[in-house]
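Why does this matter for the project? Reviewers at the last site visit asked to see concrete outputs rather than summary tables. In response, this paragraph embeds two records directly. Each consists of the residue sequence and, immediately after it, the corresponding structure tokens. Nothing has been edited or filtered.
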Amino acid sequence: MFTFFILSTALLYCLAAGIQYLKVTSFPAVKNSSSIIFRPISCKLIGAIAVIAHTIILQNSLHLEQGLNLSLFTSGSLVSWLVALVLLISSLRQKVDNLFIAVFPMAAILLLLNAFIAQPDPKPFTTQAISHILLSILAYSVFTLATFQTVLLHKQTSALKHNIGGRFLNSLPPLQTMERLLFEMLWTGFILLSASLITGFVFAQDIITQHLVHKSFFAIISWVIFAILLFGRYAWGWRGHKAMRWTLAGFFCLMLGFFGSKLVLEFLVNSTS
């Protein structure tokens, strides 16, 4: 029964993404249809139901008798859930609905991987450690959204440069609005990442035995990259491809630190031990 619930949740994510995709790529007759399924509220409503169901599934995956389970795929599912939740909330005041097309399928895939492939690795955590973990996951989730926004911005910039129109381009906000949204996400993620690093250094007792050295290293590198980008934006008005490259570089380092350690420890180290 719970398996059916998981599959239904993944299907709802894909349905919401499919509706949004049809809205921006279909013929005007479909896009402007009065059918309730193509109205903006239906896409967000289906996505919200999927997020609520995802919450219930995560509750069963995260909290085990032995402690908090933050294995690779469970952490990925948690991040994708938070990205979807933040995006849904942001869509109430910002025109970011097109990100549903990428974010919801990602959430569906990670939900299924967590449900059917994940290897639970529960561990006891202190309240201070949990606060650090939550800040880290929040920061990573916001930077994930910023990365998706960067991809959209790149496509929009390339289309305008080569004078290419189309329904997808017309569905996006103006370029200046897209850039403003990107840097709002970057500032939010940067503040959360800064708080995560501070709590990490304050509460971490032994980063060597806890296998946190390279995770901390990549997190600091990522923080430096985003700090330079935001300073460049403030001092010299960095934008366009330069801002996109720095965003992708910072996210890549953050991804290596966030998931790289889990991948090595869970699949490479454990398989050889």
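We now turn to the second protein, recorded in exactly the same manner.
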Amino acid sequence: MIDKRLLLLLSAAALAAPPVVHAQASDPAIATIDGLDNALLESMKTGKAGAEARYVRLLPAVERAFDIPTMTRFAVGDAWKGYSPGDQAALTKAFTRLTAANLAHNFASFEGEQFTVNPAVQTRGPDKLVRSQIVPKSGEATELNYRMRQAGGSWKVIDVYFGSISQLTAQRSDFAAAAVPGGAPELTKKINAKADELLKK
């Protein structure tokens, strides 16, 4: 079951016949989301292995689908410019870990859910918006939409929207308090602590 309360903090092939409803369009941004959705479904189906095992399984999918450096810079905010390259690298690594830990925690078991992807991709300046839904076996679907941008020759996620709420904006607000008084080391510690907490649940 997906924990909807924590989807805000987000952010492979399926084991059975592919439950992802693939879009008819050949937009490469959709292909990225299809790949992520399949990895999430595989993680959900192996949920009994535990959060740490799901994290290890999902980490490569996160690194493929998300533009973590861009997301980290935005989440940290103005303080980013004052950090050394080493501090920036440590923050990016911690943010990668947190993103994968969030997914491992939230997509913890499989109860017949499907992912659907809307083939009508919206273009917003240099970005694209890919709309998707998590459809339970019974009950209402949940919107999970992705803002995407080209990075390294492919389309990658730079923000996740649960409904109309931006994950990255929420994280920026959360990180701001730690970014000023403790600097990069304190913020890195806080992000890793969040990931540790999620992987214990």
